[in-house]
Amino acid sequence: MFNCSLIILIIIVSIISADNPSDLGKCQQEDLLLADCLEPHQNYIETSLFDVSGREISSSTFMRKFTNFTKSFATCIGTDLICDTARHYKFFVDGLTYIGENLYDPKVFKCLERISPKLQDCLNTVPLSFRNLRKYQSYTSDQKKLMNCVIERMKDDQVCKNRKIIDSVEKSLNATRLIIRNYKRFRRGIMEPIVFSESLLSGIEVMKKKKI
Ligand SMILES: *[C@@H]1O[C@H](CO)[C@@H](O)[C@H](O)[C@H]1NC(C)=O
Ligand SMILES: *[C@@H]1O[C@H](CO)[C@@H](O)[C@H](O)[C@H]1NC(C)=O
């Protein structure tokens, strides 16, 4: 379920790195800032992010490093941004950092490692086609049912039942949806600049079936 999102995230990063900082334009300074902030990570990007397959998502070592990278990039960019491009990137790296810090917290990750059978089990109760499951940038009522089912199973598991852990997982999934939805808008050039914040995560609207 997460694989695809990791790949999208890496694509975002590589798009940023491929940006030509010497392009002229009114937002040139912010473009330069982005490039400057990536510069110290060039080696990491080229060696570690170059050929990711998506499986890395289940490696907490890889993901903690990745989160370290997104966090230090986000911090370097700062909050004082005017132009859409920089503000979009800031949104994405903040979002990724949020997900990384939540999901790869050692306690949460221990629980995540046990989630697969729960998900399988829930998929027997909530019949969702794989195709629908992957449309997780939207949030259908079936997905909500599935999520609630997984949460119930987590509550029965000693490693997972902690309220904070369940919350972290749910918020991270909501954050993933928010990022992917905006990433689609971003690619189509219709994304509104927004600041990533935890308060956005409870307001992910549930989409009606077939309306994406
Ligand atoms: C994260 O980055 C800091 C400095 O930027 C470094 O000291 C630390 O070892 C890094 N942690 C990981 C897990 O890579
Ligand atoms: C995740 O989004 C759903 C749908 O909007 C919402 O009902 C739920 O409260 C959110 N979860 C958290 C932990 O914010």
Index terms:
about 210 residues, mainly alpha, binds 2-acetamido-2-deoxy-beta-D-glucopyranose, DUF19 domain-containing protein, signal, about 65% helix
Q: What does the model show?
A:
The protein has 212 residues and is an all-alpha fold. 64% of the residues lie in helices and 0% in strands. The two termini are 19 Å apart. One 2-acetamido-2-deoxy-beta-D-glucopyranose binds next to helix 10.
Layout of helices and strands:
Blueprint: H1 3-18, H2 28-38, H3 42-48, H4 60-77, H5 84-103, H6 106-112, H7 115-125, H8 130-134, H9 141-155, H10 163-187
The site of one 2-acetamido-2-deoxy-beta-D-glucopyranose has 4 residues, from helix 4.
Provide a quick synopsis of the model:
With 212 residues, this protein is mostly helical. The protein has one domain (2-207). The protein has 10 helices and no strands.
What kind of sheet is the major sheet? none
Total strands: the figure is 0
Between the first and last Cα atoms, what is the distance in angstroms? 19 Å
Taking all residues together, what is the mean pLDDT? 82
What is the global morphology? globular
The string of secondary-structure elements, in order, is HHHHHHHHHH
Question: How much is the radius of gyration in Å?
Answer: 18 Å
Please identify the structural class as seen in this structure. Answer: mainly alpha
Ligand catalogue: 2-acetamido-2-deoxy-beta-D-glucopyranose
Our count of helices gives 10
Low-confidence stretches: 208-212
Estimate the helix proportion, in percent.
55-70%
Overall tally of domains: 1
Strand content: under 5%
